Amino acid sequence: MNKNIRRILSAVLSLAMTLSLAACGEKNSSAQPGSTGADGEKNTELNVALAGEPNALDPMCGATDRTSSAVYNNIYDTLLVADEKGNILPNLAEYELINDTTYEFKVIKGIKWHNGDELKANDIAFTMKKGCETAITKYIWGAIDPDRIEIIDEYTLRVSTFEPAPALLALMTALPASILNEKYVTEVGDGSGTAPIGTGPYKFVEWSRGNSITLERFDDYHGETPDVSKVVFRFIPEATNRTIELESGICDLAYEIQTSDLSRVADNPDLTLFSGISNSVRYIGFNCQKAPFDNVAVRQAIASAINIGGIVNAVKMGKGVVATNPIAPDIKYFNDDIKLRPYNPEGAKAALAAAGYSNGLSTTIWVDEQKERVDIATILQSQLAEIGVNAEIKVSEWSSHVTACYNGDIDIYIFSWSCACPDPSIIFNSVFNSAMLGQGGNCSRIVDDRIDELLSIGNTSMDESERESAYKEIQQRVYDLVPWVPLWVDTIEIGANARIDSMPVTATTAWSIKNVILK
User: Fold this and answer.
1) How many angstroms separate the CA atoms of 154 and 311, rounded?
2) Tens of pLDDT along 293-312?
3) What's the average model confidence in pLDDT over 225-248?
4) Cα distance between residue 495 and residue 493, in whole Å
């Protein structure tokens, strides 16, 4: 698209926006590719189209979903980080394994919180203790004995676990393990979910409900200074609208470009498409504690009526990677013996009748308003109708959908889950552990003694072969019990205008603005 036309279109669209968003658009319209500010300096402010409004900005206030983490990963830091090979490296603290159940952490001196205070050992201890008590983060911190977290001095703490915890250090690299400021969180409580402070590269400025979240570069950040000085995340659930705002120059980055718009971005000489394979699996889930899905025979029958390949091909237009397991193929301990469930609508109808539903049944498919997920629901509705299942589709905005899933309001639901660290225990412990029902991440509410037993082995065994065997059996058990029907492994598709020189994409789908390089 001609740059002059883009400028005109940008101005027209800006006039149609609300006052707060118009201001955002006007800033960006003066920052077209290669432009400079009035003082002749490069414009370093960025506008990002986000695929929904975050649920919260504190991981212990319900912010473990992709949309929330896309924002808060710029605000907080984790104690440790993992490199591309899965090696665990210091970030906020150095660590030493004293024995199989004891760890010592030495906080790196001089790291500042956004309010100017210095990070201390008490903040780490507070985060760990709070994480052990919070349902949504217990799967990360739960191995730690909260009564045996000892603060040695201002910068040193010693931590003991109930049993050996082979995945603990890897879990500490996951975004939901972000470190919190003890004094601030104690003072504001759940307010840290709407106005957080962290030690990350960007500090929180404003949350305009229903519109946007604004962050500014933190000048005292302990790491390398980011290129981008200010970022405005705008909430645009409709995928095509994100692409339009990218084309018009109102937004510099657009997250989650949908399949139908990929060629539109890739073929535009003024735009760049940053792509990759994530480790997030899109799936259809069942509420295993709500009739009729509390009957495994019903879940198995319905799963056989789902043409997984047909859904993937239709929605992803032949570009999807069909999933067979709840983890992506490149995740440790992936069970490649499990194959795609056969599509057998006649067998499904007979199995449903044998389960007591010869006249079919009625249910609801719960989904958020993102187009791909609505498309899945629409196709699923049609496929289920063939076996006598009448499914109503209930569409909610993202945060409401997440809340419904955690609260157990759902029947059939469409969701995705990402393996946020180098060890698969992070996903298995949250989504299939009976101790994590609802808020803990087990939205399917599956309770199975054998899965719990296998999780205990995976969580405590220092024997690599034992862990591998346990996690592979869990995947087979999930296939048999059908709390999930995996659909595909999500791809990463981020659109960028010509102001962006590079933006590394990561498989965890948490893309940090600090890694964006401007031209």
Assistant:
1) 55
2) 999 999 999 999 999 999 99
3) 95
4) 7
